[in-house]
Specification:
- The protein is of the alpha/beta class.
- The chain has two domains: 21-46 and 286-388, Aspartate Aminotransferase, domain 1, CATH 3.90.1150; 52-284, Aspartate Aminotransferase, domain 2.
- The protein is built from 15 helices and 14 strands.
- The strands form three sheets. The protein has a seven-stranded mixed β-sheet, sandwiched between helices. Strands 1-2-3-12 form a four-stranded mixed β-sheet.
- Strand 7 (167-172), helix 8 and strand 8 (196-201) form a beta-alpha-beta unit.
- The radius of gyration is 21 Å and the shape is globular.
- The chain binds pyridoxal-5'-phosphate (PLP).
């Protein structure tokens, strides 16, 4: 492999990436190289990463239980913290049981590769998250991609494909890079009509949408009806880890067949306790949900009025606003221009999104101040008029 040539190719295409040392990346204001920036890139949507109850739960557990449970969950690693967390998630999701993994990415690998056998067909939304795409590959099932959010196209494909093979329909709930949502009721109806198993990864709806913060399914009145509901604790819960919630038989099957669960150490106990506290805070402090939703709606309306192209969404309160600019170079220019002004917003480029749809992914937090969002809008407005007068070229 010619690493130098490959890296050069990425640089030429404006697709080269680096890590940066950022302090306070989950807070409304972050620090980079001695300067403070308004953070419009964090998935800590409810501001729970440093909530006193979450932090105290982790610290108490650390003293009490230590870090590591000594093995994978089927050996010694499934302790009282894991049992309590799994029970709380199942209650919150309205399912019989749940199973916890060390990361959301790992959850998708573990769930799909176990549920989709080599003979199965996976019907996958065109804009699904990378972890679902990788998971489908790992399963070795045949993958059929349907147009993003399009149940009519999905039905055509379900009719045409699959025969007697087991079928799965797999989708993000809230789409991570677009901020739009899957048409869950339609997908559920199709899954029932065509005897397919519906798997929904609602990493970005959890905590933020629904009366009790259970996510997009709750928002649509479908709580507990999604046969396989995946989520992550690393976004609105402000912690780390992933879960799958389903009926008891599905969970028992995964415990026996999910290699990413069987052959990897589980969450460390302090993280499981912190996540448990976060699930409780999500339900008790509904104001956080209302606040992040209101801020997202405000930002969306303000940017729309300035003439920026935004990905539309059926649910205004989704905490992700995708501002599409087209070419990767343009997205980087806008990111740099915002940085000059003191705003941190991530440019998202291929392969994360399709070519020609590079964008800034803006994310809101309940802990953002109103004034900060108004100031951000003023900055966006100024840049918009610079660009309109050709100064951004
Ligand atoms: C839809 C979706 N699923 C899964 C993941 C992975 O979750 P985690 O960061 O917990 O591995 C992410 C985010 O990174 C995501 O956006």
């Amino acid at each position: 492999m010619d690493f130098a040539a490959e890296l050069e190719r990425l640089k030429e295409g404006q697709l080269y990436r680096t890590t940066r040392v950022i302090a306070g990346g989950a807070r409304p204001w972050l620090w980079y190289q001695g300067r403070r920036y308004l953070n419009l890139s964090s998935s800590n949507y409810l501001g729970l990463s440093d909530h006193p109850k979450v932090v105290e739960a982790a610290v108490a557990s650390l003293y009490d239980e230590g870090f590591n449970a000594g093995g994978s969950c089927l050996i010694t690693g499934h302790g009282p913290a894991h049992a309590a967390l799994e029970a709380a998630i199942a209650r919150h999701q309205g399912t019989e049981r749940s199973l916890v993994y060390a990361a959301g990415y790992q959850t998708n690998l573990g769930v799909l590769s176990a549920l989709a056998t080599r003979e199965a067909v996976i019907f996958s939304d065109a804009l699904n998250h990378a972890s679902l795409i990788d998971a489908a590959r790992l399963s070795r099932a045949r993958v059929v991609v349907y147009r993003h959010g399009d149940p009519n196209h999905l039905e055509e494909l379900l009719r045409a494909e699959g025969g007697d093979s087991p079928r799965l329909i797999v989708t993000d709930g809230v789409f991570s890079m677009d901020g739009d949502v899957a048409p869950l009721a339609d997908l559920l109806a199709l899954a029932e009509r065509y005897q397919a198993l519906l798997v929904v990864d609602d990493a970005h709806g959890l905590g933020v949408l629904g009366e009790r913060g259970a996510g997009l399914a709750e928002h649509f009145g479908l709580l507990g009806r999604i046969p396989v509901a995946v989520g992550t604790m690393s976004k609105a819960l402000g912690v780390q880890g992933g879960f799958v919630a389903a009926r008891a038989q599905v969970i028992d099957y995964l415990i026996n067949r999910s290699r990413a669960f069987i052959f990897s150490s589980g969450l460390v106990a302090p993280v499981a306790r912190a996540a448990l506290a976060a699930v409780e805070v999500v339900q008790a402090e509904g104001w956080r949900r209302q606040r992040v939703q209101a801020l997202a709606a405000r930002l969306r309306r303000g940017l729309g009025a300035q003439g920026w192209q935004l990905q539309p969404t059926a649910v205004e309160g989704v905490p992700i606003v995708a501002l599409v600019v087209g070419e990767a170079e343009r997205a980087l220019q806008l990111m740099e221009r915002l940085r000059e002004e003191g705003i941190w917003a991530a440019a998202i480029r291929p392969p994360t999104v399709p070519p020609g749809t590079s964008r800034l992914r803006l994310a809101l937090m309940a802990t953002h101040e109103d004034d900060a969002i108004e100031w951000a809008l003023e900055v966006f407005g100024r840049i918009r008029s610079e660009w309109a007068h050709g100064e951004g070229r």
